[in-house]
Amino acid sequence: MDHRNVTDHQGAVHEGLFNAYTGFLIDLACGAGRYEIVHHFERLDPARITDAPLSCPTCKKIDAAEPDAPPHLSSLTREHAEAVLALADRRGFPPALDNEGLRLAFVALNIANPSTEQLYPLVREHLTTMLTERALTVPEGSPEILVEYTRYTGGTVQAPIGVGDRLMYNGIASGHWPVVEVTAIDTTPDGVFVTVGEKNQHPYRWSAADMPRRFFKLDRGPRP
Question: What's the farthest any 2 CA atoms get from each other in the chain?
């Protein structure tokens, strides 16, 4: 998540919280909401991003960590996102495609703390960041084989492949998009090969050079 100062319609300078990959303004540190900066359905004017010092009283108090300052929304919502991911992980499924697990975790969070509903965009951004960090982590010693990984809230990164990853076959030509799991990566005199298994199908191998053209990375399962 990016933190940049932005000017609202009245000229006050706030700390803005942005999607680091898309540049989308999510909220303000003071909790005033992004519509203090942009009107509904309006794009952020780059001229509103500024190096000027904070002038919003609440943002200034948060920045100075004054005793009576409200909690910084970035820190608060990361704690909520960690709770959501922990609850989802208990189901034992990789969260990126376990929509029901994430839904149940968000419902539980909202029951425990109803005020979090308005913070969902920031919670979701932290959750996306944590899932991205997880996707970029593979077992130590894995050969470097990079494929595309799409973040839930926007933006793509090149992610390494490791045993235990779930990948999706690029079926843009065939219309067939199976989900597979990486079961082995072998370094041989002929090169590096990746063995993947599709449900109820025999495992098959691809050369490392074929992987970026053939597959997208979906996720890794929860860590012990």
Answer: 67
